[in-house]
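User: My collaborator sent over this chain with a note saying "see what the structure looks like." That's all I know about it. Can you take a look?
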Amino acid sequence: MFDESSRQLIRSAPSLPGLDANVLDELLTEAHIEIATIRIEFTGEDEIRRNILLDRVRRLAATFEAYVAFGLQPERTKAAAFVAASAHQLIAGATNGQTDGPTLLSSDAISSSISSTLLFLIADRAADAAESASKLIAVGEDHAIRRALIISIRELAKGELSRIAERDLEVEWIAADDARQHAANLLFRECAYCVQGLAVEALGRTEFPEDLEQKLTRVISLAQPHSTELPEGMYGLMHEQYAGPHHVATLLLRLLPRVRQSMLVRTPTPAGANPITWKEWLLPQAEKRPFLWTNHLHAIATGYLDRGSSMVMTTPTGSGKTTLSVLKIAAVLCANKARLKARLSTADPTNACSGARATRLRREA
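Assistant: Without extra context I'll predict from the sequence alone. Here is the result:
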């Protein structure tokens, strides 16, 4: 179920009492196989076994998500997020088809599909996040602002940021007959504004980014449990909370620094390149590829894009070699050296791969 890099990430997650992180990948794989088997060979007894298994996976998801939400062991946040996201993805896959309708986004809870999408983004696993996001369904949601938020989260995970940035959230209807639902819609709208603000930043469309942390912190504060006195003539306290908005805002708050560090528009000007020319090149590129992957960031951190630096890349297919090649070509062109000659050599297993790479390089460079 997991490739070697994913297994290594899972094994770096925090160990729990009675649960060694070194066996987490095996546990998740076994759960996935067993749930898939039960879905194929369903009997009455399997329902009991399935519920026991799902309960265990839910506890796993909740525990590791708590490490992310509360910032416990920050150096292991990515690993904890990946484990929690994988567990939520299992839950979502096991429960899909049991209920018809839109993805759950209520005043009291959110679906595992939303949790897994955001947690995969926190773990810097863009492909996994996009896969989870494809399961998000807004059709059928009665509240317009909740539909907008579901769609925005899906588009964020898929890198479709222009749609988010251009969405007019002011016209989305938030009023509800029930005061509690109306309040939840107001909180969800703030979350939607934060997703939109993040998209605007990633597209380089603002020089003065909003204080999204402050906005999300306020949502969390308003949504957390609080007590109020009952009306005159009644005794006791009324306790109220908005767990759904609180959950979304907490994950978005943890997501902000991870997404910001991967924004293409934040790539520093390579040594020797013209800053203005470099920025002018980055902006239209961000419309097509707004985020860089972890391996891209690691390569850039070595100074690979600086003038006079070279690198030999030998990584698997789909790992981002072409993106790094395009960035290097752009850095050379932005050096503003009229007679500078650069040579790029690539080796591909087939002529078809070579042709596809050449076409993409010509299109993007």
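A starting point for your reply to your collaborator: The CA atoms of residues 104 and 111 lie 5 Å apart.
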